[in-house]
Specification:
The structure is a single chain. By secondary structure, this protein is mostly helical. It has ten helices and no strands. The two termini are 28 Å apart.
């Protein structure tokens, strides 16, 4: 088995797991895949591939969660995220990838830590300003590192967003941000899309369907409290992996 085939097979296997996590928690697909894709196929190509795959799973998931989506929150978060993508796409194109990952991951870890400390109180922070800032964080994260989940996790914690509604509302947002993030990367960084065989795309689609089936089975057996903990853990994991990727890229680059 050639190295290229092995990489493609590994990615397909990871897509199954990432899709199952996305079905259970509402996020985690890009956070799990992006850091590994960056290492396996390169910084720009990895983020672009994460954007494509990260749009397929939530698109197929939409019919399952449609009735739980809170469109009013998206009316502020989504436009803010899309609006800042060109700016951060330009920043990603002119800055070295290693230091960029380190800055983004560090900011995410600090934000998550603060939100966890805040979650111990009974206060709630929400409103137009909070949602706009959340959108900015999500849009920036998708373009710079291929992940927007950590910013959404911080908002979910401080706004006391219910797990069911959060998981549902994330799906149309991920579809929008994945498409916009891909177009932004193409516009500012050029076409560096990884050359992968047709069977990889067919296998990835099959992997998404299998992951959705597994995730649906699991979701019906876990508590909301456990799901919330998994979401926060995934956000931290994505940030730590991005930080490790940034350090590795800086040292070896």
């Amino acid at each position: 088995m050639s190295e290229g085939v092995l990489v493609a097979v590994i990615i397909i296997g990871m897509v199954v797991l990432a899709t199952a996590l996305q079905r259970v928690t509402g996020m985690g697909f890009a956070m799990m895949l992006a850091p590994f894709l960056v290492v396996m196929v390169g910084p720009h190509s990895g983020v672009m591939l994460a954007n494509v795959l990260g749009g397929v799973a939530p698109l197929l998931m939409l019919p399952m969660v449609w009735r739980y989506i809170e469109w009013r929150r998206l009316l502020w978060i989504a436009p803010a995220a899309v609006a800042v993508m060109p700016l951060f796409g330009w920043i990603a194109a002119i800055m070295p990838q290693g230091p960029l990952y380190i800055v983004v991951a560090s900011a995410v870890i600090i934000g998550l830590s603060i939100s966890l400390l805040f979650s111990r109180s009974s206060s709630q922070i929400d409103g137009t300003g909070t949602r706009l800032l959340t959108g900015v964080g999500a849009g920036a994260g998708v373009v710079l590192a291929g992940v927007g989940g950590p910013a959404m996790t911080v908002y979910a914690v401080i706004s006391r967003w219910s797990v069911v509604s959060f998981a549902a509302t994330m799906q149309p947002l991920w579809v929008l941000l994945s498409v916009t993030g891909l177009l932004t990367k193409v516009a500012f960084s050029g076409s560096e899309f990884p050359q992968l065989p047709v069977w990889f795309w067919v296998g990835s689609l099959a992997a998404v369907i299998v992951g959705l089936f597994i995730g649906t089975k699991i979701r019906n057996r876990v508590s909301e409290r456990l799901v919330r903990r998994v979401v926060i853990a995934l956000a931290f994991l994505g940030a730590v992996l991005s930080l490790a990727t940034g350090i590795t890229t800086t040292v070896t680059g």
